[in-house]
Amino acid sequence: MSTPTAPSVLFVCVHNAGRSQMAAAFLTHLAPGKVEVRSAGSAPADEVNPAVVTAMHEVGIDISAETPKVLTTEAVRASDVVITMGCGDTCPVFPGKRYLDWILDDPAGQGVDAVRPIRDEIERRVRGLLSDLQIEVPA
């Protein structure tokens, strides 16, 4: 069973500077053009965490041009799947959306050594999400 349009996924964390940026980058990288990807934060930071940029660069994904974006109700309303990462009650909830809450360590203030295992866990979860969405990706 296929859908006429690509599913849309919104990743949300507090600052949109680490976890949600990595998740969005992995989803975009693994399924280019097959999923509409958004990320946002309930209280966006000024920039993406430099250790996160470095950790993603190590796996061949450049997110240096990304900027944290503010979470809007429109972004949630336009998404089929909303994945939260530690934003708790600040994430708006709309009926008919699929919500997942990924419990992940916050890379804020951490060095690249601490970010790598978070990055790797996010990649595993994104691959699982793509499998759930029945979207094939390269190994």
Automatic annotation (TrEMBL):
InterPro entries in the record: Ptyr_pPase, Ptyr_pPase_sf
Gene3D superfamilies membership: 3.40.50.2300
Occurrences of domain Phosphotyrosine protein phosphatase I (ranges): 7-132
Keywords (A to Z) from UniProt: Arsenical resistance
Top-rank taxon, per record: Bacteria
Protein's name according to its UniProt entry: Arsenate reductase ArsC
